[in-house]
Amino acid sequence: MTGHTAVTGRTALSGRTLLMSGGSRGIGLAIALRAAHDGANVVLLAKTDRPHPRLPGTVHGAAEQIEEAGGRALAVVGDVRSEEDVQRAVQAAVERFGGIDVVVNNASAIALQNPGELPAGRHDLMMEVNVRGTFLMTSLALPHLRASDHAHVLTLSPPLDPDPRWLRDHAPYTVSKYGMTMLTLGVAEQHRAGGRLSANCLWPRTTIATAATAHMRGADESLRVSRTPQIMADAAHAVLVRPAGHTTGQCLVDEEVLRGEGVSDFAGYRADPASTEPLRTDIFL
């Protein structure tokens, strides 16, 4: 299955405004395009003004794809670590589209070395992009989310798991990703009583084949054992069309979300449909 999840009895994202960090490629772009199929407005804050030497896609190209898919797009070149850049993206979204209904904390940096191996600069980059970026995007958009009748925060971060292997294997990255999760769960609890804002995390059951993961692991291996970004896009859409406050404070997994939507056949999400190799479970699960 690679189609769209049903929205029967729910509100599609037509006319809603999403503010996303990153989104030039991969999972973020897939989520943006899925929203665009509904006719959503998508504001992307990303640094990719020009093509990366090893990775395809720019924020401008992503905006063009969103428009072609049926949405309206605004590309904002900036750094999620910068308060000024995030505020500029928030203001641009409000000025162009009249408000913000959804924040998607998508931008993330990864380095899997441990203390003693990881350069301090890479550590700082992860903490600033992952934790500070999530904090800034969510915090600066909150006044506008509170004014929406369909307010959602969706963060691409994992369930909290006390298993010490995640600290043993890559403690700095674990701290940064769990920081994203904890900030999001905190926002959910902060607004739970009002029932007007949902804040959740979403993580893939399996590894996802993107240009970035192919570069890290090798394209052939990544394809054989992974799913496409579309599964995350469909799962994100299923969460974001739910009424505000209906589902909040949860660490969700893409496959479980879609099973709850009645999906039972996931073969169409395989990155290599001909592969018979077992799918690789993503980290933190």
What would you say this structure looks like, in words?
- This protein has 285 residues and is an alpha/beta fold.
- It has one domain: Rossmann fold, CATH 3.40.50.
- Helix content is 43%, strand content 13%.
- It has 9 helices and 7 strands.
- The protein has a 7-stranded parallel β-sheet with strand order 3-2-1-4-5-6-7, with helices on both faces.
- β2, α2 and β3 form a beta-alpha-beta unit.
- α1 runs parallel beside α2.
- The longest helix is centred in the middle third of the chain and has 27 residues.
- 48% of the residues are buried.
- The N terminus is likely disordered.
Nutshell version of this structure?
The protein is an alpha/beta fold and about 280 residues long. The protein is about 45% helix and about 15% strand. Strand 4 (about 100-105), helix 4 and strand 5 form a beta-alpha-beta unit.
